[in-house]
Amino acid sequence: MSTTPPPPPPQGQPYGRTWQDPPAGDQSVPPGQQGWGPGHPAAPPVPPVPARPEPKKSWFRRHKIITALLILVGIGAVGNALSSGEPDAPETVAVASPDETATEADAEQAEPEPSAEQVSEDEATAEDEPAPEEEAAPAESSATDDEAPAEEETAAEPETAEAEPDMTVSQENAVRTAENYLEFTAFSKSGLIDQLEFEDYSTADAEFAVNHIDVDWNEQALKSAENYLEFTAFSEPGLTGQLEFEGFTADEAEYGVENVEVDWMEQAAKSAENYLEFTSFSRQGLIDQLLFEGFTQEQAVHGADSVGL
Predict the structure, then answer these.
(1) Is the dihedral of CA 247, 250, 252, 258 positive or negative?
(2) CA–CA gap between residue 271 and residue 228 (Å, rounded)
(3) CA quadruple 277, 281, 285, 287: dihedral positive or negative?
(4) How much is the average pLDDT of 192-210?
């Protein structure tokens, strides 16, 4: 068939209006080309129709064997659930979908294998880490070290007790005598030793007894200060000197004087009365005597005023 395009229509006649029915029996126009006027022997060609693509088969059609296996597994699970007699709690069988199976396979393939360097570093790290037994060993040795001194101390206690010698009869008597004296009156340490020696104890036994009694020498100084103030009047420095004379240390004497309950003004007045009972004094002479005894100017004047001078 010729594909030459038809010539244009003659001027004065619009294109497409030359349709004429050919007379019956006219063979001048071939079949399939009727409808075109004279000078238009053929119709334009019909474009070919594109072929429809073949539909893609589903995954189950492409994998018939796997599909059959999955169906058999499902049937077996249902049969087990029915035979167990527990219809309320059927056993659930998880069947992986094709997409999940493909994703897991891709993930396993994508996982890189460790390199030789990484394997070497991991082995070195494992070697550097101490084993649990090695870590527990120092703790056990430390506990053993702590128990050892305790055992040594326990063993040493009987030895110390055995090392202490038993007191002789003379020492026991000296200790008993010293305790009796402290129940009767206050003593300094040196004063109590002197008293025991006065009782014919040896110096060694007297010192042993004083060193083996339970006594607070500061409290003894306080009691001695109270006893002196009950006997006669004292100024503050005069009482401190008297305690030191009795054998108390300076700290012990100071403790006794600072902690005794006393009114030093009243002590000055009593001392002034005692002096006037012994001899006569002028006002100024009495004040000077009180100052000599250690009273302050204010205390001495108060003493002279209290006796009427």
Answers:
(1) positive
(2) 13
(3) positive
(4) 93
**Residue 259 parent element (H or E):** helix 250-259
Alpha-carbon span 21 to 35, nearest angstrom: 7
- Is-contact 259 297, C-beta < 8 A? no
User: Is the separation of the CB atoms in 265 and 231 below 8 Å?
Assistant: no
Threshold 0.90, pTM exceeds: no
Q: Say how many C-beta atoms besides its own lie within 10 A of residue 307's C-beta.
A: 14
Q: Are residues 286 and 273 in contact, defined by beta-carbon separation less than 8 angstroms?
A: no
Give the span between the Cα atoms of 103 and 92, in whole angstroms: 22
Neighbours of 283 (CB within 10 A): 13
pLDDT of 81-99, one tens digit each?
666 655 454 445 454 554 5
Residue count (the chain): 309
CA distance 288 to 174: 47
Q: Return the SS3 of 279.
A: coil
